[in-house]
Design brief:
It contains nine helices and 50 strands. By secondary structure, the protein is mostly beta strands. It has a 22-stranded antiparallel beta barrel. Strand 22 and strand 23 form a beta hairpin.
């Protein structure tokens, strides 16, 4: 058979061999497969699927490939969402936008561009953030699930390689431009967000050889919104407590309410430039530049009903629901009643400042400049192939933030007798029907009116937190790869060396001022020019009638455009009010600095073989890494002055990583693959840092690193079979098994709370557990307001046990194009489907119930003093997941509809906080999402199209304790519609 590949695909296949320093033997295999396959004249979706299948089939290891159906037209505009099409991959989202990628249940993966390591904007190891790279500049991508000896180490699930076009492989000039506009259904900003992209590539013969050039760029703005309500019910009122709210049964009262409105505005600029020069048939030189600039601005508001737990002894719910707590650690936790509907009243005899109402405005940004440069050359002789390359990846990120909180002073209720800057407001709640709704109890005693809520004189300044943190990540690398060809079963031998120097420097630059008394807090009429009404459309996502839609914020637009003026106005308000407090400019935090440098030497040798129906490779990779970590040790002298000592720790490690890939072409249509290999996963940079960052919230754990953290080790096995039953169609099934040692897991500790009062230790050290946070609000955790309270801790440790991941992957691809004579127009249909089943077992690191949760479990099980714990397991792992895509392509019409579903999983991403109220990671419930696109070729040059993401506005639900147990968080995300046109010159 012959297979007529597109010019773009031939460029990509060739680039895979050349730019990854693969041998000419691999190129000859690709050519042989190309010559042996039947000519299939296809275009658009079918062309991309057919060509990707041909490349996958010819590979000597297990890879998954997605190719653009045209220049700048991958199946999705977000690269994380593109990868969601791949079997065995699930993604996580922020405000509905794909940001995280799990390959076979793990986030521990690598991302490359043209085979060059990328570095991220934070402290992680997975590489560049997917939202930072426009899919329009990528021509194809591959996911390497079974690595070869030459594959760079550092991945547990797989290595993602994003590829750009290689100009010397093109048969004709390329020039294209694309213009689009996107609209978000929940954003308060009107109009369309623009997207522009364009590509030009050409090659020509000259007196000094053949030259090629590529220039590709994109500019995109995006506005996405999510509504995120949260309700905590992690305390207990027992039937024998004797309090006014006690019932004949134990129940969970309301602890906390939050109404989050998150808006993210993205501005992304991407550029790719490539120069190639082939002075003769045996030699080629190349230079690549990939430049990514992104600014992501967050303008979020948070309405918080605080101190509602202070009324637990008074507030009687109107209705209860039965909560089945499930089991943890083999212990059946039974069931318990929980507050479902009711009013939390103002009771001045019980508490004269709770419950209270506060409004926060979070104006955060992430400004990231990423650059990747690659310079290399290749030479091909009769028996030798040699390539050498130097590459540099860098990412410089600044995260400016200006966050403020206002307390609402209810004019209908008396001021706090203790002089605090909050007072009481009644609330109503209804948590029925799978919706966490709350609002002001209109009609209740002391309830404020809309006019009072929007009166600047009724708010006071509570918190001003300003930050300008910086992160500088980089990796410089040199590599040389060689191939020697033989005339035996071992067709060639690859060997090479790679030197890399990786560095991460992080500096926390902050200023935090908390005002807790009326004497210190200016009223809003002293800074009224800064105040605006907050978003009033919190009901738009699900039609809820109970929410808070009338409140004031410090204008996030003004903060973003002129933070110095906002700071000056607030400082003037403090002075006019007579406060002695000062709002300082951000300063570098001694405890928030660390600098880590790693130098790695890697050697590999790999034999490629072919005999009869068998082909593949086997080899070893040896790595040796030296680590130098610099941080600050912060103590105090006898007078309380800060003493800073810079400390440098050094360590090293080495590993031998054997790897094997065996492919059997058992028949013309069936390919069987087996892979086995070892890899490592280095700790994230911040997991090695001894720096400590404090939050003003008493609910957030304090995170700190562990410089003794070791790399994870993973031993992987893969077995798969592909049946290519018709042209461009396949059914495949694969089994994978991973054994992991030294798994990086979160270790949490919780502060002890008095079972009667709920108070925590207010002095350092925290004998009962946790760490003393000097700037956290005492809130309800002490008898009086103030700052300084024991909070929980979170750090990474190596799990002492061995863990296992295993699973089965199914994939199916088929279209009806061969039945055109019989089906006519209906022959344009095709389907893609995949299903993944996986599980995780083993490990010894456990999470333990908080003291508050232990009280609940003691009541639900009838076992006083019960200690509940469970092995943490692997976060973000869905045991079942599938994708189903139906597409149609004929008569210039191209349409695609994809439904993606993943089963519930444990997550450490809990709403707007890093804390786990019950001591265990939350469960993100099952979720499906429907996306679709349609385009039409007006003529050979012009194409118009429409794309829709999250058509049904599928929401996110999180449960505490166990799946389907206690609903505690929702994420209500938007629908995004994009339409535009592309033109090929």
């Amino acid at each position: 058979m012959n297979h007529n590949l597109s010019k773009i695909t031939l460029a990509v296949i060739s680039a895979t061999a050349m730019n990854m320093s693969l041998s000419v033997h691999a190129q000859e295999e690709t050519k042989n497969v190309k010559d042996d396959l039947e000519v299939i004249e296809v275009s658009g979706i079918r062309q991309s699927l057919t060509n990707a299948l041909a490349e996958k089939r010819s590979a000597d290891s297990l890879v998954e490939i997605i190719q653009s159906e045209d220049i700048g037209k991958l199946p999705d505009q977000n690269l994380a969402e593109v990868l969601e099409n791949v079997t065995g991959i699930q993604i996580t989202r922020q405000a509905g936008v794909g940001t995280g990628v799990q390959i076979r249940g793990t986030d521990a993966n690598r991302t490359e561009i043209n085979g060059v390591s990328t570095v991220g904007s934070g402290s992680g190891r997975s590489g560049i953030s997917f939202e930072d790279v426009s899919a329009s500049i990528i021509s194809s991508l591959e996911v390497i699930k079974s690595p070869e000896a030459k594959t760079i180490e550092g991945s547990v699930g797989g290595t993602i390689n994003l590829k750009t076009i290689r100009p010397l492989q093109l048969g004709e000039q390329l020039a294209t431009i694309r213009v689009q506009g996107e609209n978000s259904s929940l954003s308060t900003d009107s109009g369309l967000q623009p997207r522009f992209s364009g590509t030009f590539a050409d090659n020509w013969e000259g007196d000094f050889g053949e030259f090629g050039i590529l220039v590709s760029g994109s500019y995109a703005e995006q506005d996405v919104t999510a509504f995120r309500p949260r309700a905590d019910r992690d305390n207990i009122v027992t039937s024998d407590s004797g309090v006014a709210s006690a019932q004949s049964f134990d129940f969970l009262p309301i602890q906390f309410f939050v109404q989050d409105y998150d808006n993210y505005e993205y501005e992304t600029k991407n550029f790719v430039g490539t120069l190639e020069w082939a002075p003769n048939d045996n030699t080629k030189f190349y230079f690549d530049a990939v430049v990514n600039d992104q600014e992501r601005r967050q303008e979020s508001s948070r309405v918080q009903a605080s101190g509602v737990s202070a009324l637990n002894d008074i507030s009687v719910p109107d209705e209860f629901e039965t909560i089945n707590l499930g089991s943890l650690g083999g212990t059946n936790l039974g069931s318990i009643q929980a507050a479902l509907r009711g009013v939390i009243p103002v009771n001045l005899a019980n508490d004269d400042d709770d419950p209270n109402l506060r409004f926060s405005s979070d104006t955060n940004s992430r400004v990231t400049d990423s650059n990747i440069f690659r310079l290399g050359g290749e030479w091909q002789g009769d028996k030798w192939f040699v390539s050498a390359e130097i590459a540099s990846s860098s990412s410089d990120t600044t995260t400016p933030s200006f966050n403020t909180t206002l307390n609402f002073i209810n004019p209908n209720a008396p001021l706090d007798a203790g002089g605090g800057n909050d007072n009481s407001v009644p609330f109503e709640y209804d948590l029925s029907g799978g919706a966490l709704t709350f609002g002001i109890a209109q009609g209740a005693e002391y309830a404020p009116s809309v006019e009072q809520l929007l009166d600047p004189a009724n708010v006071v300044l509570r918190d001003v937190n300003i930050g300008q943190d910086t992160v500088e990540n980089s990796e410089d690398a040199f590599r040389i790869d060689s191939t020697y060809y033989t005339d035996s079963i071992v067709t060639s031998v690859d060997f090479g060396y790679r030197y890399s120097k990786s560095a991460s420097k992080q500096n926390e630059i902050t200023s935090s001022v908390g005002l807790r008394s009326m004497a210190d807090s200016p009223r809003g009429d002293l800074f009224a020019d800064l105040l605006v009404a907050g978003p009033d459309n919190f009901n738009e996502a699900d039609g809820r009638s109970l929410y808070i839609g009338d409140f004031l914020l410090i204008d996030p637009e003004l903060v973003a455009s002129d933070p110095d003026a906002v700071l000056a106005t607030l400082q003037q308000a403090l002075q006019t009010h007579g406060s002695s407090r000062t709002l300082n400019a951000p300063t570098s935090s001694s405890s928030g600095f660390f600098d880590i440098e790693e130098i790695t030497h890697a050697f590999y040798a790999q034999a490629n073989f072919e005999y009869d129906m068998f082909r593949g490779n086997f080899g070893l990779r040896y790595i040796q890494t030296d680590v130098e970590s610099t941080g600050n040790s912060v103590t105090q002298d006898g007078s309380g002055n800060e003493l800073v000592t810079r400390i440098t720790n050094e360590s090293d490690y080495n590993f031998i990583l054997p790897r094997l890939n065996l492919v059997a072409d058992v028949s013309e249509d069936v390919v069987v693959r087996f892979g086995a290999g070892k890899d490592i996963r280095r700790p994230d940079y911040n997991d090695l840092s001894t720096s400590i960052t404090y939050s003003t919230s008493p609910n957030d754990e304090v995170e700190f690193g562990n410089p003794a953290l070791k790399p994870e080790e993973v031993l992987s096995y893969d077995l798969s079979a592909d049946w290519y039953f018709t042209e461009a169609s396949v059914f495949s099934v694969g089994i994978f098994h991973k054994t992991r040692k030294e798994l990086h897991v979160n270790q949490l500790t919780s502060p002890v709370e008095d079972p009667v009062t709920g108070y925590r230790d207010l002095t350092d050290p925290c004998e009962g557990g946790g760490i003393f946070n000097p700037i956290a609000d005492i809130n309800v955790f002490g008898p009086e307001n103030g700052r300084g309270v024991c909070v929980g801790t979170e750090t990474k440790v190596n799990d002492t046990g061995e863990t296992t991941q295993k699973g089965i992957e199914f994939a199916f691809q088929y279209d009806l194009s061969s039945f055109e004579k019989d089906l006519g127009w209906a022959s344009g249909f095709g389907v893609l489907a995949n299903y993944t089943i996986q599980e995780f077992s083993g490990g010894e690191t456990v999470n333990k119930a908080t003291s508050r949760a232990s009280n609940v479990f003691a009541a639900s099980t009838g076992t006083p003093g019960i200690e509940v714990s469970e092995i943490q397991g692997l976060l973000n792992l869905s045991e079942n997941a599938y994708n189903f895509t139906l597409y149609y392509e004929k008569f210039g019409l191209s349409a695609r509809m994809r439904y993606t579903w993943r089963e519930g999983y444990r997550s450490n991403d809990f709403g707007s906080t890093s804390s786990f109220p019950w001591g265990f990671p939350v469960v993100q419930e099952d979720r499906g999402q429907l996306n679709a696109s349609i385009s039409y070729d007006v003529n050979e040059q012009l194409n118009i199209g429409l794309e829709a993401v999250n058509i049904t506005e599928s929401e996110i639900s999180q449960s505490c304790v166990n799946e389907g147990s206690l609903l505690c968080f929702q994420g209500l995300t938007d629908r995004r519609i994009t339409f535009g046109a592309s033109y090929r010159f």
